[in-house]
Amino acid sequence: MRRSAQRASSSSSRGLTLIELLVTLVILSILAAAALPYAEMTVRREKELELRRALRELRGAIDAFNVDWKAGRISTAAAAASEDGYPKSLQVLVDGVDAGDAKASKRKYLRRVPRDPFADAARAGAEHWVVIGYQDSADTIVWGGRDAYDVRSAAQGAALDGSRYRDW
Description:
With 168 residues, this protein is mostly helical.
């Protein structure tokens, strides 16, 4: 009898009670609930950094195109440039323009049009962006179609700092 009583007490002391398991689950759920908003904010911050990089890359390519046009490295009669010296579309920055040399090489400004991380996945390439022409007003939502002077995101959301993505 004594041996069976010892076995019963030793086997129950090895396992966890239901209360201990419940307490552990409660603590883990509290930790998970605290970590989830942090993880979501981290993902959103990474998307915002990607958006800033894409805007900087696009605007830098547009500015480089304009500088080359003003310096005469792009023909003023080129079909890819407007009369103000800006590319007629974002795709021109990828396709390139004639460099005007004997080799008939092309001067390219982008490898591809960067993707807006906040845009719909169904939209492709330059359709992610709201293009603003040189003749358009700064707050326009409809592109005049003459040239690509600036770009902004088409996303409607607000950034972590409270500003709107379309105002960047």
